[in-house]
Amino acid sequence: MKKFFSTQYSEGAFNVAVLALRLCFGLILCIYYGLDKLQNFGHLQYVFPDPFHISHRIALSLVIFAELLCSLLLAIGLFTRFAALVACFSMCVAEFWAHHGHVATMNGMLHEQAWLYLTAFFAILLVGPGRISVDGAMGK
Fold it and tell me: Which helix (H) or strand (E) holds 89?
């Protein structure tokens, strides 16, 4: 019981926790958001928000890059800090431009995903991939 309330942690527990964070948020973002945008590219390329006035198609392509490719890189732990930085930027644009910094309400339900993803990816950006990752295996 004393160990349960301790503030100390082991390196192994830290690495497993970072792995769980990377896998959970990386795969969910990839499967439910990135893959969906890729499958609906034909329709979304004309209506997707364009916050930087670079064209709807390019904006959508950049978001697919962040939500599909970078989230997969995060999940496996390859180029982790770069992928986390790209994902953080994408979530900042989603939260502060699309949602105007508010928790979105749709059909009476709260949708705080952008905040949650931003927080998780920022944590990964700060602490790195951990040892249980491709980057960790390569000794980066």
Answer: helix 80-93
